Structures are given as structure tokens and as C-alpha cells.
User: Fold VWFA domain-containing protein from Mytilus galloprovincialis.
Amino acid sequence: MKDFMVAVVQSFTNFGPPDGVQVSVVLVAHTVRNYFYLNNFTQETDIVHHMKIFPELKGSATAIGEGLKFVREKSFLPKFGGERLCANKFLVLLTDGKHNLGALPKPQAEALKYDGVTIFVIGVGPKVLMSELLAIASKPEYVFNVTDFDQLATINDRIVDDACNVARYALVPVFYPLTQKKAPWPPGLLGLDQLANQHHLPWLAHNEHRHQHDEQSQQHDDRIR
Assistant:
């Protein structure tokens, strides 16, 4: 498992702010344990080193929903490294069992997707529940099922390629002044002209519609004059 995680990280070349890859690791068993946040390490060597040395989290339970909830409520917070609004967010869930404790996985996964997180799910071995993995993943093609941990090496490139394709074609709406009487900027966004995910900005779609309506009204007035 650690070898697979390291291989995914080493598939990238640029790390840390302002525009490089950031990595966090969260482990789930009967409880959830965060090993490091997105902004704890900004160099590949440090990320790989700490991936290799974290201890096992033993336990008979598999609290997948609690893990997803932790990632949603903690891992992507600005204070833990999630402040880059134009960065694409990905979660790779790796499990060899099915959920059996705590919050249900599907609602937590839906909330993450609504927040703009693309979720890949990897099931290892015969004990996983495919219907559960499909409900968590962003797309059916983002679900991978391998027979054992040795087979993880066969899907590394596919996951990295899919993530890069998502990032390449991601929609980045542009914020612009809307009328002569400027609408107030949302808190914390002063000076920004690009925003990452329209789900975070319901006011953006409304204001774009308003801007288009103002332009149409102006054109109508010009024709009358």
C-alpha cells in the first residue's frame, strides 16, 4: 500500500504552493487518524519519507464514512493547506473492506463531490462491496478493483492520467465587475479574479445572468435611441 502511494506521488514533478501538488494522508479503521495535512510538507522527499514511516492503524472495523467526513470537514480547510481556490481537489480512497461503523459513506461522498472533490476508489481483495465503491466514486470508471496489494502497481498510471485529465479540462469561472455599481466582494476574495469551483459560488452564476441581462437591456436602449 505504501509503495503504491509513493509511486503516485513520484508521478508528479512540482510540489507545494503556489501551483504544485499538495498531499495529505488519512488512515481509517475503527477510528480516523490524520498523519499529515496538505501543508505539512512541500517537498517530494519529505512527503515520501513520511508515507513510508507511518505506523499501521489496526482494528476490526472499517469506518469509511467517518474517513470521508474527516477529509471533508478538515483536510481541505484553508488552515490545513486547502486555501488555493483554483486548485483541483482529489481524493483516492483505498480499502480492502466494506464500511461497517459510523457515518454512512454515500452522503459524505456526495457532499465531497458537491464541494468539487473528484473521488477515485480502489478496492483490494474479495471483501469489498462494489455497490458501495460505485456510490462513493465520482464516476464508475473511477472505481478500480484489484485482487491483492501487489496488483496496485498496475493501476498507478491510470489514476494519475485520469487526475491529470480532470485538471486539464476543469472549468475555472472568471470573476469580473458586474455593473457600474460594483457588487460587494465575498469575504476573503478581495483581489482575486479567478475562482475554482462554481459550487462554492452560487452568487457567481446569478451575477453572470444579471450581467448578461444588463448587456441585453443596454443593447435594447441603444436601438430605441
In short: The beta strands are 25-28, 32-36, 89-95, 117-124, 143-146. Helices lie at 2-9, 44-53, 64-75, 105-114, 130-136, 156-168, 202-224.
